Amino acid sequence: MIDRRRFIVQSLSLGAGVSLLGLSACSRAKGPAQTIKGQPVIISTWRHGVEANGAAWKILKNGGRALDAVEAGVRVSEADPEVMSVGYGGHPDRDGKVTLDACIMDEKGNAGAVCFLEHIMHPISVARLVMEKTPHVMLSGQGALEFALDNGFLKENLLTEKAKTLWEEWLKNGKYKPVINIENHDTISMLAIDAEGHLSGACTTSGAAYKMHGRVGDSPIIGAGLYCDNEVGGAAATGQGELVMKTLGSFLIVELMRNGASPQQACEEAVLRIVKRIPDYRESQIGYIAIDKSGQTGAYCLHPGFDYALTSQGNTILYDAPCFLKE
Ligand code: ASP
Question: Ligand 1, residues 205, 216, 306: which to mutate, most atoms within 8 A of Cβ?
Fold first, then answer.
């Protein structure tokens, strides 16, 4: 049974004006997360996933396609200047540039991605166009920007005054070191299954705060930040991208599920792979979410503090993910 202290948002009543600040007063659930087989389901990373899932649910509840749902969902975080780890308002790199990474996969295994993209509010939609309009999987940097502008996207300044001020503060000390669980590592990754049973996923981020200019993380890399296989399930990542890239975490999770692991077991195994392979893993946070074809979900992280939003039957619950390190 779900913990009675669980936090439930009736997604249908979630309007654009719902403030995530209001959520911080609520209790969280410990899980295991509950879903109903054969029903649409959405799972996404972090607290801002609650509002993103609300937008995705509006599509799924009307019989819409999972691909449309995940795109619409993560666009909410991309456009929200208070989410300082994704899109507009995201922390810049150490040179003060907001550079964005995103990828998307549909139920047919098609994939699209952009990386090192500047000035575009919705990189996930550019990634979708790469998937649908080009023979390629990924466009980067200036080429991705030109492709976006050619397709009607607007060139915008994504560096907010708030992010600029924080960056100027950071410059005074100026050393990059990952900081666990403060809001510089909160990529939104979302997986959804629609009423047809089709699975899609999306992942979008401004990347690690104050990263080196030109650095690309795991989030736009198919198989690292996101992987979906409609016959098996999907997985997605957040956290220090280099650890995910070295272990190809999302692909690993899907392959483990293919071989019989539950989504929870597969997420735990992928975190353990990092623990075994990467000596200084304690310095970073990693969080994985996964869903299998039947709608069962899993999540696991390295350090306490990773939460994820699960929407089923119009209810969204924010869960604390179990973690490897207990402190
Ligand atoms: N995975 C992202 C990156 O490394 C950031 C994050 O989710 O924390 O760029």
Answer: 205
Q: Is the previous residue joined to 32 through a cis bond, with omega within 30 degrees of 0?
A: yes
The one-letter amino acid code at 37 reads: K
**What per-residue string of b and e applies to 113-129 under the rule 16 or more CB within 10 Å gives b?**
bbbbbbbbbbbbbbbbb
Buried b (16+ CB within 10 A) or exposed e, 132-148: eeeeebbbbeeebbebb
Question: What superfamily does domain 30-320 belong to in CATH?
Answer: (Glycosyl)asparaginase (3.60.20.30)
* Residue 176 DSSP symbol: -
Residue bearing tokens 């993560």: 74
Where are the domains positioned within the chain? 30-320
77 lines ligand 1 (CB under 6 A): no
Model pTM score:
0.90
pLDDT in tens, 189-236: 999 999 999 999 999 999 999 999 999 999 999 999 999 999 999 999
For the beta sheet containing 226-229, the strands, ordered from the edge strand earlier in sequence to the opposite edge, are 226-229, 233-239, 286-292, 297-301
Residues 75, 78, 79, 81: is their CA dihedral positive or negative? positive
Ligand 1 nearest atom to the CA of residue 285, by list position: 8
Cα–Cα nearest to 112, from 315, 122, 33: 122
State whether the beta carbon of 205 lies less than 6 angstroms from ligand 1. Answer: yes
Identify the CA nearest to 219 among candidates 199, 203, 201: 203
Angle at 96 between CA 92 and CA 97, to 5 degrees: 65
